[in-house]
Model the fold of this input.
Amino acid sequence: MKNKYGIPEMELDKIRARDTTCVYCHKEMIKPNNNGSRKDWATIEHLNHLSPWNNSSTVVICCGSCNSSRGNKKLLDWFKTSYCKKRNINENTVAKPVKEYIKYIENFIDRCIWTFAKTMPRIPHYYIVKDSLSNDDKKTFDAFSRHIRENGYSDFFVSKNYDYLNIGNFKYWIVDNILNKAKIK
Done:
């Protein structure tokens, strides 16, 4: 499998070792080659339907059939298609990395109400305060915070180091009890 996305090979090897069957339909896959059907090939799947594509925390391995069927649809939208319904592919039947992505990204981030940081107009970004969330969302906030620390990257802002995670067109970071997001330039 060639890596045209810029994902470090060591990271991709870990993902391949974890995802030995399709993360969606759970069928056995084969390495891409000239023999066999492309629908059975193990393919790199981006859980996030938007770039950047080199974020290993949003990459899994799935069969060619599922990858082709999903295309650039959001996961929760794809689960509503006849392809998924016929194969019983949904948020309860997919592999753990997909469930975690749905929980943290497609559900939590998409349903939260983001506030624009008016006091920092030169650094445009949005935020969510943990204390304003429901008890369940506070737990998800904490889990997402861990997810950022474990799967993101460190970078300096002014004189302090923060952990960031790029998802789609946004980067996310935590400052104390505040989850922030800013458009990636």
